[in-house]
Amino acid sequence: MLAGMFLHKFGVRATAVLGSVLLSLGVGASCFAPNIIFLMCFFGIVSGVGSSFLFCSMNVGVASYLENSGRHLMPLVDMGGSAGGVVCPPLISYLIDFYGWRGSLLIFAAIALNSLPCGLMYSIKNRMDNNDKNSKQRQDSYGEKDIDNIYKLLSTDIEEAGKADSCYVEHNSEQLLLQSNNSHCAEETGDLARNDTSSDHCLATTPAIDDSSSLNREHSKTNDQVEDTKNTTCEISPKALFLSIFSNKGFLLFVLTMTVVVSSELTLSAMTSDFFVSKGTTRSEAAQIYGIGFTGEIIAHISSTWMLYKNKTLSLLIFCISAILSGALVTIYPSIPTMTSLSSAGSAIFLTMCEMTAHGHYQAVCILVILEFFDEKRYPFAIGFTMTVSGIFVPIFGYIFGIITQYNNNDYTVSFYLLGSLIVIFTLPTFIRFLVKREKSKRKETHQKNLEVNLKDF
User: Fold this and answer.
1) Which of 37, 247, 255, 331 has its CA 20 to 30 A from that of 321?
2) How many CA atoms lie within 13 A of 436 on its CB side?
3) What's the rounded Cα separation, in Å, for the pair 371 and 377?
4) What are the distances in angstroms from CA 18 to CA 117, 376, 380?
5) DSSP track, 348-383
6) Which CATH number does the domain housing residue 416 bear?
7) What is the domain count for the chain?
8) Helices in 66-143 by DSSP H: which ranges?
9) Continuous segment of H or E residues that includes residue 412
């Protein structure tokens, strides 16, 4: 939430720079931690805030620069995190063996600081300012006197062309109202059925409406340009932004699903390493298995981008199906047999890759789903709100499932079953709502097409 407010106030560049500094400071200061409280404050809170600032600024910056037709490329941007997941686990294990955990944190703080020059490359705030200036110039070209003259000319020409009375059409218990002010009567004359009493009148006035429709379209275009400049230059208050977010029921349902899915997956990632160790592997081998599994996320990001580019499916559909599949795969983890070495961990590697592939699909499109609910002005607040709610429940999930595991004598079987079931159960409402709305829209389109065909035949 703080990242969204900061983005709205200061822009992408300042948010990214501050996030890189906080991330590097939090990780670097943790190497001097005298106790667990110090480590929780800096490694948990400070570096967590910096990471959220970087994550939100990256997605908002990319979404702002890409047009609507190019936003299917956004999953490729997030693929760097998956590539880091392949490299970091064995690298962390190697650094801890040679430098200890304190030295490893210091090295990773230096690596995190390299995100600062990347943040300086963003110039989204300046670009938006330039767009506002251009919009103001376009607005000045359409002064109030010019607009009044256009209205007078249009009204005079329309009066000379002739005013058409309202035409009512009744077909399949529906009435279609055609008004001469809206200039639709001429364009839909051949498509709309008319009563016998009004048919001659509409046909008689068709040429006049044809002449006025072009004028109306010109007036509509001019009015839209002026209206666009107003929408571009106006600012939305934070209160209005929050109200628009909290009043969107579909988005709130998605936030609930996203919270449970993200919290469960992060809890799973913390449990998996210890689970592999309990099955007979070493810490280093468990890290290698998890790193190999991250290649599934890279594949998922590429395949998600391809499906969105080819318009094979929608981002929300990809999210729901992949989340349900991921939850089902989580319940299979307890069936992994005992492993004596990495060479005998084929089943664990395969299952981890499959689960990470499903996980990578919904991780790749979750940002696009949020972007489909809101425009660019509300997007920073929406993504900040989603990440905040998810982040609050991550430690809660970790604490609860830690207690469950200890209660079962450090057996992860029950925890895996519960995590997988939660992912599936809380994804189903969003999935069902999506299917219902999609079916309604299809029926509406089919009804409209049938109505047009019947009217043409008539």
Assistant:
1) 247
2) 7
3) 10
4) 11, 21, 16
5) HHHHHHHHHHHHHHHHHHHHHHHHHHS-TTTHHHHH
6) 1.20.1250.20
7) 2
8) 74-77, 79-113, 115-120, 124-141
9) none
Which residues does the chain have with pLDDT short of 70?
67-71, 123-236, 238, 312, 342, 458
Q: Give the end of a domain, one of 102, 123, 144.
A: 123
Domain that holds residue 319: 246-457
Q: For position 70, what pLDDT does the model report?
A: 61
Residue 346 tokens read as 């084929």
The pLDDT of residue 453? 80
Short-list 445, 285, 434, 450, CA closest to 352: 285
Domain boundary among 77, 105, 123: 123
pLDDT of residue 123: 62
256 shares its domain with 112: no
**What is the Cα–Cα distance from 207 to 426, expressed in whole angstroms?**
58
Find all residues with CB under 8 Å of 342, minimum gap 6, and list them. 281, 285, 288, 289
- Give domain status of residue 30, yes or no: yes
Domain membership of residue 438 (yes or no) is yes
130 in any annotated domain: no
Residues in the chain: 458
| 3-state secondary structure at position 168 | strand
* Rounded (5°) CA angle 105-109-111: 115
pLDDT at 195: 40
Q: How many C-beta neighbours within 10 Å does residue 60 have?
A: 27
pLDDT of residue 236: 64
pLDDT at 161: 45
Per-residue three-class SS string for 264-281: HHHHHHHHHHHHHHHCCC
CA distance linking residue 154 with residue 221, whole number of Å = 13
pLDDT attached to residue 166: 42
pLDDT of residue 238: 66
Confidence (pLDDT) at 235: 58
**345 three-state secondary structure:** coil
Q: Are residues 117 and 258 in the same domain?
A: no
DSSP H helices, 279-345, are 283-293, 295-309, 315-330
